[in-house]
Fold these 3 entries.
Entry 1:
Amino acid sequence: MIVTIDGPAGAGKSSISRRLADELGFEFLDTGAMYRAVALMGLRAKIDWDDTDRLVEFAKSATIDLSGRAVILDGEDVSHEIRSQEVTQVTRYAASNVGVREELVRLQREFAEGKDVVTEGRDQGTLVFPHAECKIFLTASPEERARRRVGDLARRGETVDFEDILQQQAKRDEEDTQREVGPLLKAEDAVEVMTDGMSEVEVLQKLVGIVQRYQ
Ligand code: C5P
């Protein structure tokens, strides 16, 4: 069974999706981590971001292991580094690159082959797994999402301004929804869950209930 969870940045998808996968005994696929890992490779190699072919080469040559709790890029644990502000800012170059998307979508389908999976991203229910048994669109208001992001970064020791985060988020939302390839879109058959004012446990319970309807 495939459960897709799509939605905008900061809707709390990653932590909730992982907990949902644990609860159901399913594998978990964090597709944002894959785009982040490719962007990190570009950042480390100090590439010219206009050099789109170079990023495709990175995506093709990388070994990204998402089978455990950590994100392992070519044998190195980059779980923490890929969530930094610096990587977040440049991930758009990987996400808007047609060749990178083709390669990562191929890897995502390969990962899910023959397994029960909760997969999280922007295009999972629309493009990557259009025949998924259960599709969820997880969202929250821009202010609530920015508040959560500020909290996440504070826990990492990064101090940021709320208004700056709100602005960056609006830019990311626009890029995510306007992108020509794999844009953020609610699948027609997805169940929308608006999480404003809900605790993580409440959201989790709600999602478990939704998945059970399709099992
Ligand atoms: O979900 P997360 O914030 O980790 O995603 C990082 C970036 O990767 C997002 O801003 C989005 O542009 C991109 N992404 C994507 N397609 C996915 C998952 C993430 O384009 N399936």
Entry 2:
Amino acid sequence: NREEPLYSNVAREGAVSCLITSRDIELKERLGQGSFGEVMKAEWKREDGRTVLVAVKMLRSDALALQGAFGEFVKEVNAMIGLNHPNLIKLYGVSLSSPYMIVQELAALGSVLDRLRKECSLTSVAILVEWAKQICNGMAYLERQRWVHRDLAARNVLLSALNKIKIGDFGLMKSLNPEEDCYVMTEHKKIPFPWCAPECLKKRQFSHASDCWAYAVTLWEIFTFGEHPWAGNTGAQILQLIDQEGQRLPKPKACPPEIYRIMLHCWSHRESDRPTFAALTEFFRTVQLEVL
Ligand code: ADE
């Protein structure tokens, strides 16, 4: 029974209000393409009679027949249940009647990557630093809850307002057991090489420390206003550059030196030399930058 794992989890968490019927969802325009179907803007008519704007991740109607797509849908929902932080996209509920949908908080301004590429000249360095800080706060929450995101990148960092970061896309997220300090990837998935730490590329090991590496690549995307990290290099070439030759992405012109120093720290070769998100949060809490 395909509904079993998802429903039992929803029920176990005591979040029965998570079940939404598709009759209460009125789809609006398309926001983008997710891994298992389209992402739409929608109006959700809640039980209390209020209507709220939401983002809806649809499972393609043909996807139930596609191997793996339903599993991905369940994994993403399971990862989102119980997450509650102002800098993470919140799960509102799921619809388990056709079409299957994940109903979540809307980040109305879209991804920081799209925004930077379209409107870079309107975005001040002070705002970029504020984004860096809020992404760090969201990641520090995940670190405290022992979740490894595995796909942190500017394309997955959304904005609900110009100064309100919402990290999204929890499709690859993994929970670490108390005795584990990393997750060894066994599934065959495309992984985004330019955001990967050397131990991900060499040993498929993902941890808070590899999220930290990806965080610094995300900062690099932000301070270059949306350039492609390691453009023109294959995965093998990137590994050669970062692992054998010790190269790192260059300081973006707009990046304050204190922030570039943080990025280089996050790109330490040894995982244990990289800062925790808890330590980075403390840095952002206390740092005084000249640009601000
Ligand atoms: N694209 C993917 N998820 C989204 C969300 N929650 N809000 C806006 N756009 C999105």
Entry 3:
Amino acid sequence: MSSIRNIVILTGAGISAESGIDTFRGAGGLWENHRVEDVATPEAFARDPELVLRFYDARREAIQRVEPNRAHHALARLDAEWTGDLLIVTQNVDDLHERAGARRVLHMHGTHLSAWCTACDARHEWRGQLIDRPACPACGAVALRPDIVWFGEMPYRMEEIFGALVEADLFVSIGTSGAVYPTAGFVQEAAAYGACTLELNLEPSQGSHLFGESRLGPAGELVPTFVS
Ligand code: BV8
């Protein structure tokens, strides 16, 4: 990696699969026995807030019972040792990258451990449940929702992400199906600005043909090898 200075790494649900967190599409499009449109859109939350809050309470609770795996630890090592620019853009809402020790992490779809007050816009670290409609610690309103980017909502910090893609010498995608936009277009953005592109995934993704190189296998094996 001699001529490479700036790296962008995109991770998806596949990097957390070996930690025991279900991926979204491995189960044939169902997600914890729910259709995505019934639990991960603002319309779903408006229509049935209890269903959506129970769904996210269950995932927030489950996420605190699992551990980072070898892939998370390998990326954390790279983050600690890499002297150039490095940005781990994750679609995942778990905190396994951080718990493995990674620091330069950007959660573009939000995180499970944060609650967002739609009355005063405050964000709060949140490890408990939301189903009982607790009051916002800042303004007292009963207006907390998961701090998660749902379908139809703008992902977080897109300008920062595109700025990193423009400067990247290497773009690596790990454990994502390439099914969700605008994320699925990042590889083309990076390549357009001259980056080398590498995909590490269990099976061919919807975007495999867009990568300079695609390696197939479990992240727990491919990522430590890539980092070493
Ligand atoms: C937006 C939070 C615009 C919820 C999620 C074109 C352009 C722009 C938008 C669109 C477009 N076409 C359609 C859209 C709309 C939509 C979209 O993309 N729909 C899809 C379904 C077609 N996109 C949006 O709505 C986005 N917003 O575009 O806003 C806008 C503009 C102006 C103003 C307002 C808005 C927002 C998308 C974010 C939705 N939220 N998550 C939650 O987590 O609860 S997305 C959800 O899917 C997850 O975040 C997840 O990260 C993401 C992608 O899934 P993956 O991570 O890839 O997981 P998946 O299961 O699919 O795949 C796992 C992969 O891992 C597999 O390939 C598997 O082989 C591999 N794997 C499994 N095990 C392993 C492994 N690999 C390695 N090792 C293993 N062990």
